[in-house]
Design goal:
With 286 residues, this protein is of the alpha/beta class. Helices cover 40% and strands 23% of the residues. The strands form two sheets. A six-stranded mixed beta sheet has the order 6-7-8-3-9-10, sandwiched between helices. The chain has a four-stranded antiparallel beta sheet with strand order 2-1-4-5, covered by helices on one side. The longest helix is centred in the last third of the chain and has 25 residues. The radius of gyration is 20 Å and the shape is globular.
């Protein structure tokens, strides 16, 4: 049985609001999930559902108000800056936008070597590691001497993935890593994520708004709605036969090539949307 790598327990995250006497906004309302070593957990929800906040909390970029985040059994939810920096070799991130996540003034070799240099890896070993990273993500060795602007969006995201792999992490938080790419490039990058996991055993927390994206990659899927997990289970089951109406609505938002089926899905989605609105009003959800 694989070890539990990340264990998120009843995590609450509040964001302060401007204005005297205003109560903070509760972005996460007691969220619990776990990720096993070598596993991909898909975290799905619409904009504002809290999924990115959970990823940021795992990375130490959002302050945790309550609950705990255990990494290999140790609570990392309230680490200091120095301790968090040391943890960077274990937990890394791939951001959404490949056009802004890379320093435009550095060559690809400098970008990939930077985390190694910070940890005092000798220049010769760092250069060898950069060549290995480029090979892992399917880019030629000649890419090392070029600047980010010389690459397409899909290639830049491959470089961002290579940077995340530089320190051989156990867990990578992937924050909408393919949403800015066209469909054919998305498929290639998702295949790359899968291949890397097969070769290295790295685990992913894969954040996305699209059930069809996480279906191809996730062993288990958690669905977020208004800061809470409303469905959690096997990836195939959640993404093909969801139980919760909100997850069903997300599934129906994905287009199908048959116009008759598409029209029926649209009608079913609107019906579920009205039902969800009625439930939200009854529960007092904004």
């Amino acid at each position: 049985m694989n070890e539990v790598l990340l264990d998120v327990k009843d995590v609450i995250v509040d964001y302060p609001l401007k204005g005297l006497g205003k109560h903070p906004f509760r972005a996460l309302k007691g969220v619990s999930i776990e990720i096993l070593a070598g596993e991909t957990v898909g975290l799905v929800g619409e904009s504002g559902s809290g999924k990115t906040t959970l990823g940021r909390a795992v990375l130490g970029l959002a302050s945790v108000t309550g609950g705990s985040i255990l990494y290999k059994g140790k609570d990392i939810s309230r680490l200091g800056r120095r301790q968090r920096r040391a943890l960077a070799s274990e937990i890394q991130v791939v951001f959404q936008d490949p056009y802004t996540s890379l320093n435009p003034s550095l060559t690809i070799e400098q970008i990939l070597a930077e985390p190694l240099t910070v940890r005092n890896v000798p220049a010769r070993d760092a250069s060898k590691r950069v060549a290995d990273l480029l090979d892992q993500v399917g880019l030629p060795g000649s890419a090392a001497d070029r600047l980010p602007r010389e690459f397409s969006g899909g290639q830049r995201q491959r470089i961002a993935i290579a940077r995340a792999l530089a320190l051989q992490p156990r867990l990578i938080v992937c924050d909408e890593p393919v949403s800015a790419l066209d469909l054919s490039t998305q498929a290639r990058v998702l295949d790359l994520f899968r291949d890397i996991q097969d070769r290295t055993g790295v685990a992913y927390l894969f954040v996305s708004h699209d059930l069809s994206v996480v279906r191809h990659l996730s062993h288990r899927v958690a669905v977020m709605y208004h800061g809470e997990i409303v469905e959690w289970g096997d990836g195939d089951q959640v993404t093909s036969e969801p139980v919760h109406p909100y997850t069903q609505r997300l599934l129906m938002a994905s287009p199908v090539p048959d116009p008759v089926r598409q029209a029926q899905r649209r009608a079913d989605r609107f019906r579920l949307l009205e039902l969800q609105r009625e439930q939200d009003v009854q529960a007092g959800v904004a």
